[in-house]
């Protein structure tokens, strides 16, 4: 019954959450039919619960009234036997017994409330105590690093204010796989060569290509160096 009741109660919330989809697809008739199916499944258990609740309430309430009537009759008989059948004593006796038994009239709804809470706990507690271990699925991604090749062909360079060639007909290749060292004395043109690669300077003759494309077309933001 708990599972059927959960489905029946959750149907309306699901319907409200998807009312736009239901409206666009024009499936109101299907939604009503699904609700009727859930209600028909839950109806027998609901009738059984209502009958049981009514029977328990009748037993408790009727039992309390019956006890009051019996105690009244016993008290009246005792007062008659003792010769003290006075209306005031009879009323006091009934009031005393009634004040003791009257709180029991609330026993049936109290038990019903406790039963509902017990049902709610049985519905929620298994989910709260269930230890769900997170499932980590390894991410597989084929990663192929780009191979960048810098090629210089017959590169020569001199600054405009001097005719001394810093670089003369230099051929070189630089790959991004590994480390390339530029070794030379001070003033040999190491920093100048890097500036030529970054397109900060233009070679006097020759060309510098990155992946077969002239260096001036490539973005200098892809490279950096510390002199």
UniProtKB/TrEMBL annotation:
Keyword annotations: Membrane, Transmembrane, Transmembrane helix
Pfam families associated with the record: ABC_tran (PF00005)
GO cellular component: plasma membrane
Major localization listed first in the record, in broad terms: membrane
Record localization: Cell membrane
Entry-linked InterPro entries: ABC1_TM_sf, ABC_transporter-like_ATP-bd, P-loop_NTPase, Type_1_exporter
Alphabetized GO MF terms: ATP binding; ATP hydrolysis activity; ATPase-coupled transmembrane transporter activity
Membrane-traversing stretches: 55-79, 91-115
Membrane topology per record: Multi-pass membrane protein
Domain ABC transporter: 167-217
Protein's UniProt keywords contain Transmembrane helix: yes
Protein name (database record): ABC transporter domain-containing protein
Organism: Lacticaseibacillus paracasei subsp. paracasei Lpp123
């Amino acid at each position: 019954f708990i599972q059927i009741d959960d489905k029946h109660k959750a149907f309306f919330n699901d319907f409200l959450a998807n009312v736009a989809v239901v409206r666009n697809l024009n499936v109101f008739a299907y939604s009503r039919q699904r609700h009727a199916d859930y209600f028909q499944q839950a109806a027998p258990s609901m009738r059984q619960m209502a009958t049981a609740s009514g029977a328990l309430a009748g037993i408790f309430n009727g039992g309390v009234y019956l006890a009051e009537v019996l105690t009244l009759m016993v008290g009246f008989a005792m007062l008659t036997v003792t010769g003290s059948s006075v209306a005031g004593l009879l009323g006091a006796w009934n009031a005393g017994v009634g004040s003791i038994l009257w709180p029991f009239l609330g026993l049936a709804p109290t038990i019903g409330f406790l039963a509902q809470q017990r049902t709610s706990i049985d519905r929620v507690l298994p989910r709260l105590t269930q230890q769900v271990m997170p499932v980590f699925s390894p991410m597989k991604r084929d990663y192929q690093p780009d191979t960048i090749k810098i090629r210089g062909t017959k590169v020569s360079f001199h600054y405009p204010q001097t005719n001394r060639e810093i670089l003369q007909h230099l051929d070189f290749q630089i790959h991004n796989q590994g480390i390339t060292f530029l070794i030379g004395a001070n003033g040999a043109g190491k920093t100048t060569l890097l500036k030529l690669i970054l397109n900060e300077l233009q070679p006097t003759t020759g060309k510098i290509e990155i992946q077969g494309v002239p260096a001036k077309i490539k973005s200098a933001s892809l490279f950096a160096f510390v002199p």
